[in-house]
Amino acid sequence: MAVHRIKSCPNPRKSKMGGGENQKSKIIPPPFPHGLRIAAIDIGTNSLHMVIVEVTDTLSFRTLSSDKDLTNLGASGLIYRKLTKTAIDHTLDVLARYQRIATGLDCDVVLAYATCAVREATNGGDFVEAAKRQLHLPVQVISAHEEAHLIYLAVRQAIDLSAHPERRGGGHGPSLIVDIGGGSVECIVGTDEKALYLDSFKLGASRLQQQFIHSDPISHKNLTALEKHIRKTLKPALDPIKALHPLRFIGTSGTMENLASMCAMRHGEEVLRHRLLTHMPREDFEDIYKRLLRLSVENRRHIPGLDPGRAEQIPAGAAVVQYLFDKLDFPCIDVCDRAMREGMIIDYMQTHWPKVKLSVQIRDPRRRSVFELGRRCNFDEKHALQVTQLALAFFDSFRSLHRLDAHDRELLEYAAILHDIGWHIGHSGHHKHSAYLIKNGDLEGFSLHELDLMSNIARYHRRSPPKKSHSEYIALPPEDRDRIWKLAALLRIADGLDRGHYGNVQHLKTIIRRNTVSIRLSTKTDPALELWAARHKTDMFELAYDRRIKFIAR
Questions:
Q1: Cα(350)–Cα(346) distance, rounded to whole angstroms?
Q2: Distance in angstroms (rounded) separating the CA atoms of residues 412 and 489
Q3: Residues 431 and 461: beta-carbon distance below 8 Å
Q4: Per-residue pLDDT tens for 508-544?
Q5: Which of 53, 85, 187, 313 is the right S-S partner for 205, CB 3.0 to 4.6 Å?
Q6: In Å, how far are 68, 114, 436, 457 from 489, measured between CA atoms?
Q7: Omega of the bond prior to 477 within 30 degrees of 0, cis?
Q8: H helix or E strand, kind and range, residue 142
Q9: For residue 186, how many other CB atoms are within 10 A of its CB?
């Protein structure tokens, strides 16, 4: 017998944040009130990236706009240590356009950070002065260590670095983060609490391409010299990284994203940006790497998943990844779409708001993202939390029957919180709308596989159980379909037991017998409505668990 007291989940703590100074040049006020808006511009060796965000009342932020342009600012600066006038002028033109976008979105703060291309060039100061003189844009040139720290902040905000939920049975330990830029490679080992190791190496894809690739396709001689240089440069990093025993390998930035995209496209899968982790198995990567070495630049431009602008330098970046796979023996890389620009925003938030406000932030990035999506969809939070508590109570009571683990419990919890967000679109078919919003609502820190599971669990909280005609369900492997049946069955009953949306059920006891399961309820008032609804939702449970279910109210 299992006994559970039902009480409201603690609401994520809120804090109202002041923020930012109003721009003096602002003439027309914003058409509606909004939170602090920040534009972060990453001036890299190959490209410019800008992201514009609005801070939410949970001390996080939501993306309003994202832009990227290939500028090749460091096309010659990495070797000859001088930025060309053409590259400077082109970069300034793009920066001017980014400023117009930021102004149009009423940004309170515009951050612009430059990395190694400007840092290493003898005329890097001229570029900074030109940006200030022509655009009134202060560009901050950051050190390699600062760059690595910002990358760490960005990935930590999106992913729980200490926990590895997709490892069956769980797993805890630090993660290795590798960012391959145009001029440098940053290596970080960190947990959710702090970075344990930070270092930067002059092994960026553009730098290596300029230094070592002088034939098309790359010759054996060039490849040998390239690999030798990578070994010599990264060798000092191997021992400290291995000593920290990272359990997970996370890659960021354009080179990693393009490699992961090419691997995914081998299987006909689109890589969705701005919300997902993309898994890049070693076997897939090595097939792609061999292909890159065989092909000419022109032929590489046509590889599905590869940005044609990266065709020249992608073999050099891939050689770094191959070396890390060989020496660190990870089975795959989780490629995260968060990078330095998001780190710039987080750093600004941390250094400009009082610590007391930061202390009330929801720290778990996945949970925070779930509540943010729910609130964006104006969900009934009280009902969602009550249903979640009931669903988790059933999960804990029936462990001996379902034999699922903590990761499954987490997915059930988040699916339960979001099960009704489809009301934001409309009542009719809102369970289907909920599934769609979970998959497409920019949830942070979830893999595509997890979103598939969560959306299906929420989708079957009402109406028809899964059918062969339901394409998104039937496309999943049998073990996942079994998990969805077992978890959605619990969610259906939990939702029925809060049919009135006023938290009538306060306690429950479950008794498991050979052919039946009895649920004894203690309620505030007459539970006739809840019992009626729950009894109409027992179909999936009785099929999944091979037991009839009885409700007893007292």
A1: 6
A2: 10
A3: yes
A4: 999 999 999 999 999 999 999 999 999 999 999 999 9
A5: 313
A6: 44, 52, 19, 9
A7: no
A8: none
A9: 28
Q: Is the pLDDT of residue 271 over 70?
A: no
Place of tokens 């290493």: 120
Point out which residues pair with 62 in neighbouring strands: 54
Instruction: Give the model confidence (pLDDT) of 453-497 as tens digits.
Output: 999 999 999 999 999 999 999 999 999 999 999 999 999 999 999
List beta partners, residue 548: 516
- What CA–CA distance (Å, rounded) separates 265 from 287? 12
Pairwise CA distance, residues 503 & 526, whole Å? 12
Report how far residue 83's alpha carbon sits from residue 64's, in angstroms, rounded to the nearest whole number: 32
Determine what percent of the chain is predicted with pLDDT higher than 70: 88
| Crossing angle (nearest 10°) for helices 144-158 and 365-376 | 60
Tokens read off for 210: 């300029």
The one-character DSSP state at 329 is -
Rounded to 5 degrees, φ, ψ at 279 are -85, 130
Cβ atoms of residues 39 and 175 within 8 Å: no
Residue type, position 211, single letter? Q
- 121-173 tens-digit pLDDT: 999 999 999 999 999 999 999 999 999 999 999 999 888 887 665 554 456 78
Tokens of 496: 């029925």
Task: Quote the DSSP letter at residue 172.
Answer: B
pLDDT at 266: 86
Q: How far apart are CA 493 and CA 530, in angstroms?
A: 10
In this predicted structure, what is the pLDDT of residue 81? 87
- Residue 170 is predicted with a pLDDT of 53
C-alpha neighbours within 13 Å on the C-beta side of residue 451: 22
Backbone φ and ψ for 465, nearest 5 degrees, come out as -65, 175
CB 147 within 8 A of CB 184: yes
Query: Do residues 177 and 149 make contact, with C-beta atoms less than 8 angstroms apart?
Result: no
Lookup result for tokens 């949830």: 443
> How many angstroms separate the CA atoms of 469 and 471, rounded?
6
Which amino acid would we find at residue 317?
G
Centre a 10 Å sphere on the Cβ of residue 306 and count the other Cβ atoms it contains: 19
354 vs 109, higher pLDDT: 109
Q: What's the confidence (pLDDT) of residue 351?
A: 84
